[in-house]
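Thread title: Can someone regenerate the structure for this chain?

I was given the following input by a collaborator and told the matching structure tokens would be attached. They weren't. Posting the sequence so someone can regenerate them.
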Amino acid sequence: MSAPLFRRILVSALAIVLWWATPSAAQTTPLALTLEDAVRRALDNNPDLAIVRLESDVETARVAETRTAFTPVFSTVLGRSSAATPPANSLLGERGVDVNDVFSSTGVRQRLPWGSGTWSISWDTSRTTTNNPLTSFDPTLQSGFELAFSQPLLRDRKVDSARYQYAIARRNQGTSDLLFREAVVQTVAAVKQAYWTLKATRANVNVQQQSLDLARELARENKVRVDAGHIPPIDLVQAEAEVAQRRENLIRAHTGAEDAEDALRRLIVSADDREFWKVRLEPVEDLSVIAALPDIDAAVANALDQRYDIARAGRDLENTQTTIDFLANQRLPDVRLETSYRGNGLAGTQFLRGGGFPGSIIGTRNRGFGDALGQVFSDDYPTWSLGVTVSYPIGRSFEEANLARARVERQQATRRIASLRIEAAETVRRAGRQVRSTAERV
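Best answer:
Regenerated them for you:
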């Protein structure tokens, strides 16, 4: 192989190696990141925040689920039955009695969202054929229309299970909204802290590098002086030890900066963006000078009024009070007003009989289904009822035991709110003192 050809092959191989070894532009170009950009990326991409947002959607779905307790329910039945029974008396002879029935029923019922009353409306029809010689109709067409209403007078009137679950779900939905807002505040605070921590660790790397350079310069000067006999060799050993110590500090500073970069990246990166872990983040925003020191008393008052954790604890207290009201209501006797009205209609082929019992058939009269419908909506065959039902457990009920537990939980919730208020005031006061102390140190 000639020398020029060998050189060309060697140059091509080196070019390929350098091409593979050179990192891509996405890996080498840093991402200039302002504090506002970091916060925006966190609000869009933070997976923990997305989980809290979905939890709020879950609570919204639960509200809709509990609301279905008041949705009207439509029901319908369509069927056919047949019954064969042995003769009950000598008038029927030795043959049995066959009854064939085709029936249907359609109705709507609903629990009212106020007063806990329940209404229903139903419509039923049937067509019956039989070989019973004692029957007066064959076939028999029957129809009925019924209205019914049930109203609790003591237990369940003020609050029942459905309205209790709905009230709790609505309040939990508001609590989930507060939890999401709290998560947003915490995420923004974490991003800001991670942003300035990364900027501080990057500055610390520069400081440690300058410190190492100074130590190396001192070691070089001490070596010259030792070689010239101006200083003892122990000074050179001490300078070299200082160089090693500052090199270790630089290594630790690099590690801290990389950890801080990953901490910020963890907050703002999307879980689906795997390449983002390779991008170098570059915080470009400078610190601003504190214009005025905070008013600690005003900050404490503002925190006690607007802290989301205190507001959530207040909703928990409201839930406990709702539970107490529900359980106290369940201790009352179950007294219900029951009322209903039904219109009936009868049609078909009627047998006209003469003579004694059971008489002989002397003719027939045909009545169509329209006649039965007319009777249903008239006062020919009305059926109505009005009454009160009462039930009450004898002895200590399950609701009484739960009521005692709920009252203790209300006391716990009240104490928890007081504890949170004290903790919030102490946290704000400590943070205010830190701000003042830092400003004085600066």
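Residues 205 and 253 are 5 Å apart (CA to CA).
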